[in-house]
């Protein structure tokens, strides 16, 4: 069991009003699962993701990550958890500007004392190869396309060998073709490398690539269903390619 | 997080904003450069005054009569007659820290050589006087103790006197001049001494045995002053104590009575003069120090801007596992690197400016190691002090808010 969330609540104070972003949420995720979390804006999915990424702490309830109750950890211990156990992919990539792809990927390892500069470089290079960006290692983010930037961000999320990768609308800024490329990469990570993946999206189209979808509304889980017809991003891409050929012979 | 990594991050951030980092450094560069140059100028003038005073005589001690009370009236200090033969004898016999002694009896008057005349000061001294004043002879010989005993009419003349009495450049040694109608045979010519610290011409002088002045001109048994020389630098203050003891005994002063003489050393004179230039140095250093503080505020200002500008970066670093302390150290080290780099450039610039001042303005300068070390330390502290608060602000950001900062 990678994630075990029990009776999770998160409240915010907005001036006089108390806003219940998450209201009594419970679910589990086992190792190797690919789960999407769906919901319209304001449904609490980002709040849930922030808690799952240990950036935020619940008001009440328990969150066991890899067997540890992280809701009880101190800020510094949480920082260690981001660093060693979790990888995060953002909608807006969030790469450091004017910093090469390689250095961006090295970033999480900079905060890990176990890595020497040599090991850090090697590990980052290897990870970039895995996302098929070996030839763009020394490019700056401004010299990369959106899809390439997102792949750098994925490499950054993977470089510390996390137990779980979290993605927040990771395809939100990309066109559908590039989105499928990213989804293909994510499916690969899940199937071939056995990574546990939690993918937040509001596009039903994207959710079809995962094996399970949790739907949130108003801070509650309204649906938690397995997907029996998982789409294969590779096939979708291949179809797209043949379609383009028909249109432009 | 390792310090090496932090240093690398800081250097990268500075390199990314070269112009801004340089302008921030400029405050520190000017501050440190100014501190070093100002202190060098202050120290230089202090040292040059010191060496001028030392040139007046080696370990010289001056004893002068002091005002005392006679019949209820305070006497004019200069004209009091308290120093005489027995004092010199007592000092010569009892003062262990004194190596040479010379009384001084002076008279002013006109010296005549044929058609040329010159008004000068005739100073009666002992044969030790020249060694006390560290004043070498250019030609001729010094009068002997025998001359002193016999009150011989011989004299040594200074350069100014020689050039005025012998305008055509004749060798004065062996000639005879008249001073207040008494013929004096010149047996030696003094080396050029130049002006003293007060701007008086020290070469406008005629030296003769003090007995000659006492017996043949002034008709007095008193001295206007006694010059003494301590054995070495360290024994000067001992010598002063001894002189006071001996003179009090020889003048039969009771306990509680004031001294009727004053003893002065070169050290006192040096401290009087150097305290003036010390004030100058402090003043200059304070002004320069203020510019260093202004430079520090510049660093703080830029670091604040930098923290705000890089809020998103901070959020990202936190989300990949940076602890608050890592962020704090990152910005603190960046501030310190800026201030220390600025400091190093400032040191080089300060030394160059100092060289320039002594080269083009011919001012005496002295770069002390302590001023370099001090300004460098101040620089480091400035970096820490003014960098800490912005860094603390950065480390306390909430990662979620920071990530969504636009």
From TrEMBL, chain A:
<dbReference type="GO" id="GO:0098796">
    <property type="term" value="C:membrane protein complex"/>
</dbReference>
<dbReference type="InterPro" id="IPR003593">
    <property type="entry name" value="AAA+_ATPase"/>
</dbReference>
<dbReference type="Pfam" id="PF00005">
    <property type="entry name" value="ABC_tran"/>
</dbReference>
<dbReference type="InterPro" id="IPR017871">
    <property type="entry name" value="ABC_transporter-like_CS"/>
</dbReference>
<dbReference type="GO" id="GO:0005886">
    <property type="term" value="C:plasma membrane"/>
</dbReference>
<dbReference type="GO" id="GO:0022857">
    <property type="term" value="F:transmembrane transporter activity"/>
</dbReference>
<keyword id="KW-0547">Nucleotide-binding</keyword>
<comment type="similarity">
    <text>Belongs to the ABC transporter superfamily. Macrolide exporter (TC 3.A.1.122) family.</text>
</comment>
<feature type="domain" description="ABC transporter">
    <location>
        <begin position="3"/>
        <end position="243"/>
    </location>
</feature>
<keyword id="KW-0067">ATP-binding</keyword>
<dbReference type="GO" id="GO:0016887">
    <property type="term" value="F:ATP hydrolysis activity"/>
</dbReference>
<dbReference type="GO" id="GO:0005524">
    <property type="term" value="F:ATP binding"/>
</dbReference>
<dbReference type="InterPro" id="IPR017911">
    <property type="entry name" value="MacB-like_ATP-bd"/>
</dbReference>
<keyword id="KW-0813">Transport</keyword>
<dbReference type="InterPro" id="IPR003439">
    <property type="entry name" value="ABC_transporter-like_ATP-bd"/>
</dbReference>
<dbReference type="InterPro" id="IPR015854">
    <property type="entry name" value="ABC_transpr_LolD-like"/>
</dbReference>
<protein>
    <submittedName>
        <fullName>Putative ABC transport system ATP-binding protein</fullName>
    </submittedName>
</protein>
<dbReference type="InterPro" id="IPR027417">
    <property type="entry name" value="P-loop_NTPase"/>
</dbReference>
TrEMBL record, chain B:
<dbReference type="Pfam" id="PF02687">
    <property type="entry name" value="FtsX"/>
</dbReference>
<feature type="transmembrane region" description="Helical">
    <location>
        <begin position="279"/>
        <end position="306"/>
    </location>
</feature>
<keyword id="KW-0812">Transmembrane</keyword>
<feature type="transmembrane region" description="Helical">
    <location>
        <begin position="21"/>
        <end position="42"/>
    </location>
</feature>
<keyword id="KW-1133">Transmembrane helix</keyword>
<dbReference type="Pfam" id="PF12704">
    <property type="entry name" value="MacB_PCD"/>
</dbReference>
<dbReference type="InterPro" id="IPR025857">
    <property type="entry name" value="MacB_PCD"/>
</dbReference>
<dbReference type="GO" id="GO:0005886">
    <property type="term" value="C:plasma membrane"/>
</dbReference>
<keyword id="KW-0472">Membrane</keyword>
<dbReference type="InterPro" id="IPR003838">
    <property type="entry name" value="ABC3_permease_C"/>
</dbReference>
<feature type="domain" description="MacB-like periplasmic core">
    <location>
        <begin position="21"/>
        <end position="246"/>
    </location>
</feature>
<feature type="transmembrane region" description="Helical">
    <location>
        <begin position="372"/>
        <end position="391"/>
    </location>
</feature>
<protein>
    <submittedName>
        <fullName>Putative ABC transport system permease protein</fullName>
    </submittedName>
</protein>
<keyword id="KW-1003">Cell membrane</keyword>
<comment type="similarity">
    <text>Belongs to the ABC-4 integral membrane protein family.</text>
</comment>
<dbReference type="GO" id="GO:0022857">
    <property type="term" value="F:transmembrane transporter activity"/>
</dbReference>
<feature type="transmembrane region" description="Helical">
    <location>
        <begin position="327"/>
        <end position="352"/>
    </location>
</feature>
<feature type="domain" description="ABC3 transporter permease C-terminal">
    <location>
        <begin position="286"/>
        <end position="399"/>
    </location>
</feature>
<dbReference type="InterPro" id="IPR050250">
    <property type="entry name" value="Macrolide_Exporter_MacB"/>
</dbReference>
